[in-house]
Design goal:
about 25% strand
């Protein structure tokens, strides 16, 4: 458990943990795990989202038609978390029931839906085995380092999309992180400096946004087990918004350094409304990983 002097009052956690939130019907409303404060009110934790379709009882209408931009493209803007259909069951040692945002099955293990699991190269299989034997104590997320965007989709934190004709920006609540997907027709860089998020460009294929990404570091984790993504990796996302309340993200990873063949998973997201992203700075008063490692 992690406690912070800023942001939301009361206790907080992470993926091992996550920001603690309460759900109210179809809407997941953010609430302090312990008490309330004027600081909480000031962060718009329960601020009604304007201009969205609602049912007769005032809840967001998740099955309403997906919004579109003035040029007719699907508008992916919104705040997103793991959809219930893709979430780990609560109360089984990873996610507590009733107080946290959901964590996806893929957040625990990216190959959860793949028959036979992820096709690791031998060195990657050994690395994952070691991570699991040591409670993932080298997890970059646990060490307060940035997450890959694929992992961010499955962690119990909000990802907010802001779409314009030229760029799609993902604002990640955890560590106030961000990702840029350029929609302006540029090519991927020829010799990119390795980075945490890589370099991403997108194009529209009908109502599907196709995003290609390269340029990753060699020490990235895709899940709690430490399934790797390396500098040889190429990631393609096919993102669709079938209705107001959902995103479907089909992800194909082609990383011959870490895997014997390309593999594909589907990450389903659900909109979260009547709240707003807030500060969650992992390193602030962090104690969990030091306790796990037995260091002062």
């Amino acid at each position: 458990m992690r406690h912070s002097g800023s942001g939301r009052a009361g206790a907080r956690g992470r993926a091992m943990s996550g920001i603690w939130r309460l759900r109210a019907g179809a809407v997941m409303l953010v609430a302090a795990a312990v008490g309330a404060s004027t600081a909480t009110d000031a962060q718009w934790v329960k601020h009604p989202t304007p201009g969205i379709p609602r049912t007769s009882d005032g809840k967001p209408d998740l099955t309403a038609p997906a919004p579109r931009t003035p040029d007719g493209k699907p508008d992916l803007s919104g705040m997103w978390v793991t959809a219930p259909s893709n979430a780990l069951p609560c109360g089984r040692g990873v996610v507590e029931c009733g107080i946290e945002l959901p964590m996806s099955r893929e957040g625990g293990y990216m190959g959860a839906s793949i028959a036979g699991g992820l096709p690791y190269q031998p060195w990657a299989a050994e690395a994952v085995k070691k991570h699991m034997a040591t409670s993932s104590q080298d997890d970059p997320h646990g060490l307060c380092l940035p997450d890959t965007f694929l992992r961010a989709y499955g962690l119990p934190h909000i990802v907010k999309f802001v779409q314009t004709p030229q760029i799609l920006i993902a604002l990640e609540e955890y560590n106030a992180d961000y990702r840029q997907i350029f929609l302006d027709g540029r090519a991927l860089p020829d010799d990119p400096t390795p980075s945490w998020k890589g370099y991403s460009v997108g194009r529209w294929d009908g109502d599907t946004l196709v995003v290609d990404s390269i340029g990753f570091r060699d020490d990235l984790w895709l899940d709690l087990r430490g399934s790797p993504l390396t500098s040889a990796g190429r990631v393609r996302e096919r993102i669709t918004r079938p209705d107001f309340g959902h995103l479907n993200i089909e992800v194909t990873v082609d990383d011959p350094k870490a895997y014997t063949r390309p593999w594909t998973v589907r990450l389903q997201q659900q909109i979260i409304a009547d709240t707003e992203i807030i500060d969650e700075i992992c390193l602030e008063n962090e104690k969990f990983m030091r306790r796990l490692r037995g260091t002062p």
